[in-house]
Amino acid sequence: MTEQQALEHINKLKQDLALHAHQYYDLDSPLISDAEYDALMQQLISLEKKFPQLITATSPSQKLLSKPAKTFKQITHLTPMLSLANVFSLEELNTFLERLDKQSDFLCFVLEPKIDGLAVSLIYENGHLVRAATRGNGKVGENILANVKNIASIPKTLPQSSELPEILDVRGEVYMSYQTFEELNNLQLEQGKPLFANPRNAAAGSLRQLDPQITRERNLQFFAYALATGSKAEHWQNLQFLKELGFPVNEHCQKLKAKKDIEQYIRDFQIQKVSLAYATDGVVLKVDSIAMQERLGFTGKDPKWAVAYKYPAEKSYTKLLDIIPSVGRSGNITPIAVLQPVLLSGSMVARASLHNFDNLFQKDIRIGDTVLVQKAGEIIPEVIEVDFKNRPNDSKIYELPDSCPSCYHPLIKLPGLVAYKCINSKCPAINQKSFEHFVSKQGMNIKGLGRSIIALLIENNLLHSPADIYQLSLEQIANLPGLGQKSAENLLAAIAESKQLDFANVLYALGIPHIGYKTATQLSIHFKSIDKLMTASKEDLQLISDIGEKITESILLYFANPENIVLIKKLQAAGLNFTVTKTTASPSNSKLLGKNIIFTGSLETLTREQAAKLASSFGANIVNSISKNTDIVVVGNKAGSKLKKAQDLGLKILNEEEFLNILK
Predict the structure, then answer these.
(1) How far apart (Å, rounded) are the C-alpha atoms in residues 510 and 466?
(2) Which pLDDT score is estimated for 556?
(3) Which H or E run includes 306?
(4) Out of 20-34, 52-66, 81-95, 463-477, least confident range
(5) For residues 289 and 234, is the Cβ–Cβ distance under 8 A?
(6) Is the pLDDT of residue 416 over 70?
(7) Residue 431 CB partners (closer than 8 Å, separation 6+)
(8) Which of 277-291, 374-388, 586-600 ranks highest by mean pLDDT?
């Protein structure tokens, strides 16, 4: 990479980081996850290390990007409120420790949970709380005193003693518990207001209300973690002093010296934190000696004597509270884990897949266990393993259901399959899931026709088959509880718009077992009409790449059912598109044929869905996660962590223009 290329990349990263910092700190409405933001910052730091001459004083790596809001009075901090440098592995942590070892052989460290909340400064004069401010840009913050006074765990006056200095600057974190977060979002839902993305954003939004009464109602909490003025000789002593003054200090703080003990604390806390009532995303490690802190000083915006160890965002331990059976649109019954909510890749996860009952029993997953959860392909949460060391004595083995949880019809298990199945064609759950699939984004993409509206239409005897969607009237929809004229007009407009979608969307929406969107696209391009597809033989179907015995049998069975033919005729009469009028290329000579391709970030001229559809029409396989088997990564703006992973794996990376040039 030339210096000019590096400069262009650095400038782009600066713009992206400034945007996301504004969304996160100032608007409490993040566009990307913490992990994706960290990945962008690491890219910038890495480039600046290679090209130190390009580092500027205004770089996000050198200064905080947030700024005080104009709706609050600005306050200058007595001492700067700086951020912490992050490390993401024990190897990086060891590099930090080894650097400090060169300064002194006798350093002790204090390890504290990194609370996912909003940092604040509390100023006490002669024991009375007189000022409170957010971090802001590190030098100037927002005056939130009126709101802070409504947080019960923050002392308003301090006990008088000879040790209490005239001015005391207490630093800490305001946070929201999982329970309060869930209750708040339920209330937001009831009132038709936007949901908060996670507890941190809920806490920040609640603390920065212009009406202090709203802050009082939000039940915010506080942990003190430092003294900026009136300090003792050691940070550990400061924490004990804060406790004596009545401040809540996190009980998981520990003072340690040996590197092996520090590493063990980090491993242990990754499991322990799942049982906490609040969100944490890492561990903060600080040099205990205040004199040594002052000697080490700062680099840019970060202290040299402290670091934040960030746990991987894609996996986390949490408690499995219950296991419930779920009915799929094909009638398959799958076990779903009900979890203590945990933050994964920027969103709260409260449920996860257990795949099937064989998997559940083979892994010996029980109710009450601590389990490791990850987002498969960064999309679907799944339970991957049990922490057997911490299994409680009262953990419960799940009992296999013998009837459908929706219609109570006896379940069957077909030979050679792992799934138990409900075969009642009138099962309400199967009916509901079939409609949800039909209107989904890759299906007919009918905006506004979500789960609750579908249930309402079924309940009012207005939906029996997908064709009924296209027969709904303005009066029928407007008269439903909770809806009205405007909602009905919007829904009918979305239904009408869906008629313009491609044959591939319609084919996917039909819900033929084992036919995903990629296969639906291949079938639509190959046969070009539903009539040719319906009359295709087994041999005709298996001429297509990736169409094997299982998919072939499923297609033949679907079109052999007279009820399905009747549905297709009704949908044709309603105006849905069952033909391909033109194709962009013949997959047989495409440069993308058989290539695994992924799209990430915001493209300029296409949506990611449009780009994926276009790539599929050229024979590409669209994948959701990056691995060594990925052939091409197409990146747009705000590509985030996927771009870094692609670079680390040495994959072929294209921008949108390069991708479109391939198609020419």
Answers:
(1) 9
(2) 94
(3) strand 306-310
(4) 20-34
(5) yes
(6) no
(7) 458
(8) 277-291
Which two tokens mark 2? 């030339």
pLDDT at residue 457 is higher than 90: yes
Q: Are 643 and 637 in contact (CB under 8 A)?
A: no
Q: Which tokens go with 442?
A: 């890759």
| Cβ 141 vs Cβ 133: under 8 Å | yes
Q: How far apart are CA 501 and CA 23, in angstroms?
A: 34
Other CB atoms closer than 10 Å to residue 579's CB: what's the count? Answer: 15
Q: Is 67 tagged catalytic?
A: no
Q: What is the pTM of this model?
A: 0.47
Q: Are 361 and 304 in contact (CB under 8 A)?
A: no
For residues 580 and 503, the answer to whether their CB atoms sit within 8 Å is yes
Given 14, 73, 102, 114, which residue is catalytic? 114
Task: Average the pLDDT over 280-299 and give the result.
Answer: 91
How far from 22 is each of 39, 118, 495, 548, 610, CA to CA, in Å? 17, 14, 37, 50, 29
Does the CA dihedral 496-499-504-506 come out positive or negative? positive
The answer to whether 264 touches 330, Cβ cutoff 8 Å, is: no
What pLDDT was estimated at residue 591? 76
Q: How many residues does the chain have?
A: 664
Q: What is the pLDDT of residue 274?
A: 72
String of DSSP letters for 352-366: EE---HHHHHHTT--
Q: Please compute Rg for the chain using Cα positions.
A: 29
Point out which residues pair with 172 in neighbouring strands.
120, 224
CA distance 63 to 140: 13
Q: What would the mean pLDDT of 215-241 be, rounded to a whole number? A: 92
Write down the pLDDT at residue 345.
Answer: 59
Q: What is the pLDDT of residues 581-610, one digit of tens each?
A: 654 444 545 677 778 888 888 787 777 777
How far is it, in rounded angstroms, from Cα 441 to Cα 609? 9
Domains of the chain as residue ranges with CATH: 3-54 (1.10.287.610), 74-310 (3.30.470.30), 315-421 (2.40.50.140), 425-496 (1.10.150.20), 587-663 (3.40.50.10190)
